Amino acid sequence: MTTSVTNAFALSEQEQALLPTDDEVEAYARQGWYLTRKLFTDAEVDELTAASERFYAGERSRTLPARPPRLAYWEPEKGAVQRHNDYIHYEHDAIARILRKPLIGAVAARLAKADEIRIWQSTLIYKPPISGEPSNVVPWHFDRHYWQACTSEEMLTAFIPFHDCGVEMGTITMVDGSHRWEEIGADDTTTRHFAERDNTDLDRMLADNAAHNHAEVRKIPMVIPKGHMSFHHCRTYHGSGANVSPDPRRAISFHLQPGDNEHRSFRLSTGDVVAYNHDVLVRRTADGRPDYADPEFCPVLWRN
User: Fold this and answer.
1) Would you say 243 and 170 are in contact if contact means Cβ atoms under 8 Å apart?
2) pTM for this structure?
3) Which residues contact 94 (CB under 8 A, 6 or more apart)?
4) Angle ∠(280,285,287) on CA atoms, nearest 5
5) Buried b (16+ CB within 10 A) or exposed e, 112-129
C-alpha cells in the first residue's frame, strides 16, 4: 500500500523540470501570481473542452447529494450569460482525472511551501463571446474573503484556460503584489461573493486599500498559452474584462488548500457564523466541525 501511494505522487524527470524554480517561488511571494510552463498536453486540454461540452449537454458521473446555499451552477434556462459550475471535479470524472494530474499539485506545493495540497473547489467557467454581456466582467476581489471559515492563509488558485487566452478573451488579470497589502475597511459584506456585490463598491475597496498601503494599482493581464496556467495567492486582487473575441473563453478555476487547512468558526457582526458550501456536504471531524480533508470532496492532489 505504501509503495502505491508513493508512486501516485511521483514525477518524471521531464515533469520535475516544469516545476517553478527557487527564483520563481520568490517572485510568487513578491507578486502574488505565477505563470507556469506547459503542464498539460494539447490532448489533455482538448479532452477538457470535449468533456465540458458533454457536461453542458447533461453528462454527469454523479451529482451532489445536497444543494449548498451559495452554489454557482449554470443551467441552460439561464441563457447566454457567463457560466459557472462548482464542484466539476466531483460531478465529472473525465475532467477530474485531468485536473488531478500530480504535476499540478506539485507546482502548487512549491508555491505555497506546503507538503500536501488538497482540492478545495473547482469551477467550470464559460465566458460567451458577447462583449456587452454584463456577467462577463468579473470585478476586483480576492478569494480569501470567501474562505473565512478556513484557517490557512496560503490557499491558492490555478486558472486553467482550454486554449490560448489573452486580453481579447477577457483573461484573468492580477493586481501585482496586492496579497501583501494591509487591508482596511473590511466588513461583513466582504464574505459575500462578487456576484452579490456592486462593482463600483468593489472598485472603491481596491482603490482604498491601495491608498492605505501607498501602493500603485498595477494590473497584470495573464496571457496564457494553451496547456499553461496561472496561479494566484488567495489574497491577490484579481478580476477579468469582457470577452470581445469571436470565441468563448473556456476555463476552470481550480482552488487549492495546503494540507494543514482546517475549518474555523468565523462570526459576523450579526452573530451568524460564516459557512462555506462544503459545510453541508463534507463529513465531520471528531469534534464536530466540517472536515476539509474529506477525500470525497477535497481529495489530496499532491503529497511529498
Assistant:
1) yes
2) 0.92
3) 47, 51, 54, 61
4) 110
5) bebebbbbbbbbbbbbbb
Return the SS3 of 198.
Answer: coil
The three cell numbers of residue 226 are 494553451
Q: Do residues 100 and 94 lie in contact, with contact meaning Cβ atoms separated by under 8 Å? A: no
DSSP helix/strand/coil, 303:
strand
N residues, the chain: 304
The 10s digit of each residue's pLDDT in 40-95 is 999 999 999 999 999 999 999 999 999 999 999 999 999 999 999 999 999 999 99
Contacts 24+ apart (CB under 8 A), 142-148: 142/178, 142/179, 142/234, 142/235, 142/236, 142/237, 142/238, 143/234, 143/235, 143/255, 144/234, 144/235, 145/186, 145/190, 145/191, 146/191, 146/193, 146/276, 147/120, 147/234, 147/276, 148/191, 148/266, 148/274
- Compute the distance between CA of residue 223 and CA of residue 35 in angstroms, rounded to an integer: 9
pLDDT in tens, 232-279: 999 999 999 999 999 999 999 999 999 999 999 998 878 888 899 999
